[in-house]
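ESCALATION

Customer reports they have been waiting on this structure for their group meeting. Please prioritize. Original submission:
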Amino acid sequence: MKTHASTADVSLENFHTKGFILLRDVLEPTVVENTRTAMMILVDRAADHLVSLGRISDRLRSDPFETRLYHLYKNNLDLAPKLFREELHMAELYRVFFNSSLLDVAEKILGPEIRLYPNYTVRPKLPDWAGTLVLWHQDGGYTESSSEGSVNELRMVNVWSPLVKATRANGCMLFIPGTHKLGTVPHVKKEHDTDPT
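Update from on-call: job pushed to the front of the queue and completed.
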């Protein structure tokens, strides 16, 4: 497996100074393909649901992976999924959730006792629709208010991986280096970036 940096030799300097580590080619191609297969199953289910409601007649099975969900929902945004969470309990996703290379990196940061937090999420990105935008936030801003306790006590790391080429135009992860050193900043509850505050 080709990696940007061997998971055994990952320097944590970026993690401590900037708040993130960029790893490339860590997931084996079969893991990525199984994950895309799982997403295609979810899109098939979504297409079946739209057909059952009479919203579409064509399931668009020949559309490419990258655009099929959008084409199914472009005239049905009122029903479009903002995220998939409960639906992710699928055998095809086991090797991504419990990937040994990613767990090795997490162990370097957290130590040997690791728990997969049960809010793993797949977020589709639909063009020009606020429903799939993710607001600027710190995950700790949501955790602090939970019964789990302080984010400092939890010691959490997050992993984000795109299933298509990610760019600013189509919804890549944006991160402000060093903001992890600010502590938990106040969060304003709103649904979309375009909501007035």
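Sent to customer with the following note: Residues 29-52 form the longest helix (24 residues).
Escalation resolved.
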